[in-house]
Write a structure and sequence with these properties.
By secondary structure, the protein is α/β, with parallel strands linked by helices. It has a single domain, classed as Rossmann fold (3-Layer(aba) Sandwich). The protein has six helices and seven strands, in the order ααβαβαββαβαββ. The protein has a seven-stranded mixed beta sheet with strand order 3-2-1-4-5-7-6, sandwiched between helices. Helix 5 links the parallel strand 4 (104-110) and strand 5. Helix 5 crosses helix 6. The radius of gyration is 15 Å and the shape is globular. The mean pLDDT is 92.
Length: 191
């Protein structure tokens, strides 16, 4: 989906998906944080951060958190929301064409993959695997209803997991009424 699509949504509505007020979003965020667990996270990356509601919730358990999105108007709201959190960096980035450098202990791809073409989901999977530190985790969360995007949430999650093959271990696969949550983990090196 082009960047202009998202800019138009945020120009028309400050919170087009009701991230701040939706019971669906609140419950999904709580389930995602519960799946991630309470352990301290060194370096985390959230793709598709939108206005930063989940970013703000995840940030307290991270030493550093990079949050990215393609819509500058959404990023401005995310920067405001996380202004008091010096360890949070918010940048404009379009995945999979653009990708952050370095390794991450946690990568969150929540309701973002179905905006990508199938071939780009495969590219994102390969790049994400290369960006994981030993034992690092990838969390996929996607709405499972019908979409008019390039993929459904089910298709996006399955394409990503298929591209990962057996390189990552499936740590969790939860199905909820309207979304699915998948957690994949890189193997720890043998000492």
């Amino acid at each position: 989906m082009p960047d202009a699509y998202f800019e138009a949504l945020y120009s028309a509505e400050r919170d087009p998906w009701l991230f701040e007020t939706s019971g669906y979003e609140r419950d999904k965020y709580a389930a995602t944080l519960a799946a991630i667990g309470a352990a301290r996270i060194g370096r985390a990356w959230e793709a598709g951060c939108s206005i930063g509601v989940f970013t703000r919730a995840l940030a307290p358990q991270c030493n550093s958190l990079l949050a990215v999105d393609v819509a500058e108007s959404a990023l401005a709201r995310a920067r405001e929301r996380c202004a008091d959190m010096q360890h949070v960096t918010i940048r404009k980035m379009r995945i999979p064409e653009e990708w952050p450098s370095g390794l991450f202990d946690l990568i969150v791809l929540s309701e973002v993959l179905y905006y990508l073409a199938p071939v780009d989901i495969g590219t994102a999977a390969w790049r994400a695997m290369a960006s994981l530190s030993p034992g690092g985790r990838i969390v996929l969360v996607h709405w499972t209803g019908e979409t008019n995007y390039p993929c459904t949430g089910e298709q996006a999650a399955m394409l990503f997991r298929e591209a990962c093959g057996h390189r990552l271990r499936v740590r969790r696969q939860d199905r909820h009424d309207a979304y699915r949550l998948d957690m994949l983990q890189a193997e720890m090196p043998i000492a």
